[in-house]
Amino acid sequence: MSWNWRTTLGVALFAAAVISGWSAWQQRARP
C-alpha cells in the first residue's frame, strides 16, 4: 500500500475527528 499525501491527510483528519469526538464524549459523560 502506497502512502501518498491524500492517504496521509485522510488518516490525519480521521484521527483528529476521533480524538476530538472522544474528548467531547468524556466531557459530556463527566457529571
Number of domains: 1
How many beta-strand runs? 0
Largest sheet: none
Distance between the termini: 44 Å
Average residue pLDDT: 91
Fraction of residues in H or I helices: over 70%
Characterize the overall form: rod-shaped
Give the low-pLDDT segments. none
Measured by DSSP, the beta-strand proportion falls in under 5%
Rg calculated over all Cα atoms: 13 Å
Order of helices and strands: H
Label the structural class. Answer: mainly alpha
Count of alpha and pi helical runs: 1
Protein name: LPS export ABC transporter periplasmic protein LptC
Helix-strand layout with pairing:
Elements lengths: L4 H25 L2
Organism: Xanthomonas perforans
Protein name: LPS export ABC transporter periplasmic protein LptC
